[in-house]
Design goal:
The chain is mostly beta strands and about 500 residues long. About 5% of the residues lie in helices and about 70% in strands. It has 4 domains: about 1-140, no CATH class; about 155-305, no CATH class; about 320-435, no CATH class; about 445-499, Membrane-bound Lytic Murein Transglycosylase D, Chain A, CATH 3.10.350. The protein starts with a strand and ends with a strand.
Length: about 500
């Protein structure tokens, strides 16, 4: 006879991590007619834009646009010039069992970028693009299990309660920001915009019932040529933003928010006062995963003193995620640019690789220097700064990383670099429950005549449930014959047989 439990269920999302996709994208371009020939490459600044995300019966296809700016030193004039390039790409994730209710969230980011001069008028750039995809499938979760009334007197069950975190909402929202920034008064006026680097980050997530308020910042780093110089000048701007997302869930206690930029627009414009300003427009999609605390009442074991039975159990794993945490890493490292290194004009930085392994974090920062060489003639060189840290919490999941600041001090070819890197992460832990899945009672009664009506037992590591199950008794029966106080281990108990 099979026992069918009485179950109460709710709908939740189960997260499935998909292996990252890495693709090498190569773009070729010729130098614009108004620019001179390439003398030496300075740096490559790539940006990855999310353009589409499509679901099919076989998985998820993500379409993006790689947009990059290549800066170089002219062959004759030593002037900094720029070549703009773009190329569409596609990432395909094959996922077994994906259905119409499944949802996916993607994070696209550029990795390492290498440029090669094919001839003085043509250049080739190869950029690694990384796609991190998470899938969410709707599942039914049993939150309350009990016995039907007609079998309550036939077997004993062990009820337990656990509090777990469930994913109860997965959603996204598109939005746009428009800003105009005046160039700082202490910097020269801009003649030509060379390259733009845009970043968005989440700084705070607040829960207000079913709504989530996401606050963050957008950073714009631009390099431009001033009116009376051929050397690039950097300036930075930032603006706060706030978005409200209605998750549709009854209750949320925490959320994880990530951002993908979908389009950008930059332009240098003249203001009424005659100064230059930067017009910026950014389009992005905000991805949100919301969680709630859920109490789960389940049965972990069963036995019968009247009929033999067989039990089967299943394991349920719940992931617990901490709140988003930010940490700033300050790194100091010397690099060698050679004895001919004079004044350093510009330093371009890019965080090209970052990974987490248990409690270890490994990262690589590219530093592209433009410096004065012989007779002040500009030269360019790339140096790598490798970072290895081991004091991070176990189960760290990296959400975002960026270079905050780079300061350099040069002396006789030796350059001391001071870097600040911000990482945003969560810690992940797992809670595993063993739930009674099915109970089947035999058709024939089993007798226990070989057992005495009362057993005298010295307790080892057993609890009352173990003793009752082993000696065909009940917890109430044991408590009726023995004063149960304090530790059981080492005590001698009278255990009655019950049928």
């Amino acid at each position: 006879m099979e026992i069918n439990f009485l179950n109460k269920t709710i709908n939740v999302y189960q997260e499935y991590r998909v292996p990252d996709k890495r693709v090498q994208i190569t773009v070729e371009s010729v130098v614009p007619d108004v620019n001179e020939d390439i003398g030496r490459i300075v740096t490559v600044k790539p940006t990855v834009l999310l353009k589409r995300k499509e679901k099919s019966a076989f998985g998820i296809t993500v379409g993006g646009l790689l947009s990059l700016s290549l800066l170089y030193i002219g062959e004759e004039s030593n002037r900094i010039s720029c070549v703009k390039m773009q190329k569409e790409f596609e990432l395909t994730y094959e996922i077994d069992g994906i259905d119409s209710d499944s949802l996916a969230q993607i994070r696209l980011k550029p990795g390492s970028a290498e440029a090669r001069v094919l001839n003085p008028r043509k250049v080739s750039v190869t950029v690694e693009v990384v796609g991190e995809l998470n899938c969410f499938r709707q599942e039914t979760l049993v939150v309350d299990t009990s016995l039907p009334s007609d079998v309550e007197d036939m077997l004993y069950v062990k009820p337990e309660r656990a509090k777990s975190t469930i994913i109860n909402a997965v959603c996204e929202k598109s939005f746009a920001l428009n800003e105009q920034y005046r160039l700082p008064d202490n910097q020269p006026q801009a003649r030509e915009l060379l390259t733009e680097d845009i970043r968005m980050s989440v700084e705070n997530v607040e829960q207000v019932g079913s709504r989530v308020v996401v606050k963050g910042k957008v950073w714009a780093e631009i390099w431009y040529l001033p009116d009376e110089s051929n050397q690039a000048v950097k300036t930075e701007f930032s603006s706060p933003f706030s978005q409200i997302v209605d998750t549709g869930a009854e209750e949320c206690v925490s959320s994880t928010a990530t951002l993908n930029i979908t389009n950008t627009y930059f332009d240098l414009v003249d203001t009424i006062s005659g100064d230059k300003a930067l017009d910026m427009e950014v389009h992005a999609v905000l991805q949100l995963v919301s969680r709630a605390e859920q109490e789960i009442d389940y049965l972990s074991d069963a036995y019968s003193n009247r009929l033999p039975l067989t039990c089967s159990s299943k394991s349920m794993v719940f992931k617990e995620m901490s709140a988003m945490q930010a940490r700033v890493l300050d790194i100091e490292q010397d690099v060698n640019l050679g004895d001919e290194c004079g004044e350093i004009f510009s330093v371009f930085s890019s965080l090209t690789q970052i990974g987490v392994n248990n409690t270890e974090l490994n990262a690589q920062v590219n530093l592209d220097f433009v410096y004065g060489a012989e007779e002040g003639k500009p030269n360019a060189a790339r140096r790598l700064v490798s970072i290895h840290l081991t004091d991070f919490p176990s189960g760290m999941r990296l959400l975002d990383a960026r270079v905050l600041r780079v300061d350099v001090k040069a002396e006789k070819g030796r350059v001391c670099c001071f870097l600040s890197i911000e990482i945003v992460f969560q810690t992940e832990s797992e809670q595993e429950l063993s739930l009674l899945d099915a109970v089947t009672l035999a058709d024939e009664a089993e007798t226990y005549r070989d057992l005495p009506s009362v057993s005298l037992v010295r307790v080892g590591k057993e609890d009352l449930w173990d003793l009752a199950k082993t000696y065909h008794s009940s917890i109430k029966g044991i408590e009726r014959l023995n004063p149960i106080e304090g530790m059981l281990s080492g005590r001698v108990l009278l255990i009655p047989r019950e049928s």
